[in-house]
Design a protein that fits this description.
Helix 1 packs across helix 2. The two termini are 34 Å apart. A six-stranded parallel β-sheet has the order 3-4-2-1-5-6, with helices on both faces. Strand 3, helix 4 and strand 4 form a beta-alpha-beta unit. It has one domain: Decaprenyl diphosphate synthase-like (Undecaprenyl pyrophosphate synthetase, 3-Layer(aba) Sandwich). With 251 residues, it is of the alpha/beta class. The chain contains eight helices and six strands. Bound molecules: farnesyl diphosphate (FPP). The site of farnesyl diphosphate has 21 residues, from helix 1, helix 2, strand 2 and helix 3.
């Protein structure tokens, strides 16, 4: 049976987040430069977006560039920014055709002006689309995101706009870059590394984690289907017991 047919479309994760890892190793294995790996990673990005949109996933967050990635050699950073720019130019039509809206999280103000402008243009041109929300994490750091939220909340407390007793989980959530999105239910990391690497630290509290040895440029629709099928086999208890779950689900 085709893998896709094994997916229960009524129990899709609403939000899938992906740490796309392994571009450099993929290129090295082929005797090529790391940038060759990133270029080939774009095909995997395209397939993943297409598969998510076809299935009816509502939110897909891709870790495209971390705050720490700025420390890579300048040539690689420049190549990644150029790749981002070109992809935005080349994919705008496909995004619109597939009713996909582009969003971002992270410190996008730190991106080079041309990439930033292109990003904002594509976001504006796709803002009325109602299908998949494609969220690119760019210059993103989970710890910075939380630190920024704390700073904003502290300023409000200092000005007397809020009382410390007003601060709870829901309140904090409204100060995160992801305030408009539900938490990811499934987090995928490719390339065999078993780390979170500062990605969505707050939001993945109850996400199911899925690790695959596949290097990102080799990731295809079937790899996404496998992750979703694995997700659907798991029992998500949120701290409760198995026996309590039918009651919750039937409530
Ligand atoms: C990690 O592989 C990958 C990245 C830091 C960048 C991801 C970028 C792309 C897939 C290309 C363009 C993206 C978009 C959204 C158009 P790595 O370089 O850390 O690989 P390694 O761990 O094998 O060295």
């Amino acid at each position: 049976m085709e893998l896709k047919a094994e997916i229960d479309l009524n129990r899709l994760p609403k939000h899938i987040a992906i740490i796309m890892d392994g571009n450099g190793r993929w290129a090295k294995k082929k005797g090529n430069h790391r940038i060759f790996g990133h270029r080939n990673g774009v095909k995997a990005v395209r397939e993943t977006i297409e598969a998510s949109a076809e299935l009816g996933v509502k939110f897909l967050t891709l870790y495209a560039f971390s705050t720490e990635n700025w420390n890579r050699p300048k040539m690689e950073v420049d190549a990644l920014m150029e790749l981002l720019m070109n992809s935005l130019v080349n994919e705008l039509e496909t995004l619109c055709k597939n009713n996909i809206q582009l969003k971002t999280i992270g410190d996008t103000a730190s991106l080079p002006a041309d990439a930033r402008q292109r990003l904002y243009d594509v976001m504006s041109q796709t803002k009325d689309n109602t299908g998949l929300n494609l969220i690119l994490a760019l210059s993103y750091s989970g710890r910075c995101e939380i630190a920024n939220a704390v700073k904003d909340i502290a300023a409000m407390a200092k000005n007397g706009q809020i009382n410390p007793d007003d601060i709870d989980q829901c309140f904090i959530q409204q100060f995160l870059d992801t305030r408009d999105y539900p938490d990811p239910e499934l987090l995928i990391r490719t390339s065999g590394e078993l780390r979170i690497s500062n990605f969505l630290l707050w939001q993945i509290a109850y996400a199911e984690l899925y690790f695959t040895d596949t290097l990102w440029p080799d990731f295809r629709k079937n790899d996404l289907y496998k992750a979703i099928i694995d997700f659907q086999k798991r029992e998500r208890r949120f701290g409760m017991t198995s026996e309590q779950l039918p009651q919750i689900n039937n409530a």
